[in-house]
Amino acid sequence: xxxxxxSPEEIPAFVGPFFVAATVGCQFVGAYLVxxxxxxxxxxxxxxxxxxAGLTASDSSAQSTTPSFKTxxxxxxxxxxxxxxxxxxxxxxxxxxxxxxxxxDQYSYDWQYSNTEFADIGxxxxxxxxxxxxxxxxxxxxxxxxxxxxxxxxxxxxxxxFYGPPGTGKTMFARALAGELSAPFLELSPGDVTxxxxxxxxxxxxxxxxxxxxxxxxxxxxxxxxxxxxxxDVSDLSSHVEDxxxxxxxxxxxxxxxxxxxxxxxxxxxxxxxxxxxRPGRLATHFEIDLPDEETRHAILExxxxxxxxxxxxxxxxxxxxxxxxxxxxxxxxxxxxxxRNAATRDAETITREDFPSGDRLxxxxxxxxxxxxxxxxxxxxxxxxx
Length: 387
Fold this sequence. Notes:
The structure is a single chain. Helix content is 42%, strand content 7%. Helix 8 (200-215) runs parallel beside helix 9. The chain contains 13 helices and six strands. Mean pLDDT is 78; it is low at 1-11, 17-21, 37-69, 71-95 and 380-387.
């Protein structure tokens, strides 16, 4: 008889138990091999680096391979490609989470939190009140489930233009607005968002708003707005084609639906602004930060004298406020600083009236410092720029 038989009756008795044991063993070995294969696949794949809070995975990848704007290189950084395809921002008040400073450091632009508040600005009470009612209160109400603004379809102003003479506090108002909102703040000059490379400026502006979308509610301050939003009259030979591209790109970004970033700009040359940038939906809320009146000058002097040993009487301080007509907030700050130097030089215990210029000297300085700023152009004026 051969080793293999076609007849079941001819299989020896000992083969049955051996066959069962072999079958069970094969199943065990197969299960072990499958589990080992899966374990090898998991250990063979490296986990990606952790992504900082507030950034997407594409943010982290892009930042590890692309030069940052903070380095001053002309190369373009796209922090989050996904945000350019999904522009829908969260509802007003929904982004009440506060990104850590470490998370903000992961972005290309230098986002920071402002420590300035309205209480740090002397006077200008009407402007503070308007900013509160048009920007701050609608945002705070939405965050507190208060529908008094939303039920009437009132959205916070997200495009603001400050204009007025130099030194009147336009930058400080932008910082204070961000401080009141506890929102990330970014302060930019024209050189921060423009480039000498063709088309690079437009790309940098897109990247800026991509970062703003990724952060959520924030405040972008654009100083010297006349250099960014100049009139795009194609007949003007002094208007460079790249400058017109910059203005056009800002127009496109400011007009986007769902933009959560609050864009604040400032200029002391409002007549040079393209009227199209001032249309509703863009930089439509305008504030003239003019030379301080007597009440505001008094308040500014009080703020800069706070915490400094002073024996100035209320009448003397009021007289200084009246005698400094025409001085800006910056000039009043310098006036107090000079008085402190004088007091320190004479080793005085406190600042007195003699540490300030005489009344006649202040009158001369007042007359030479007064300046007038033209008004903003009417955005309905189609003789300048494009609509």
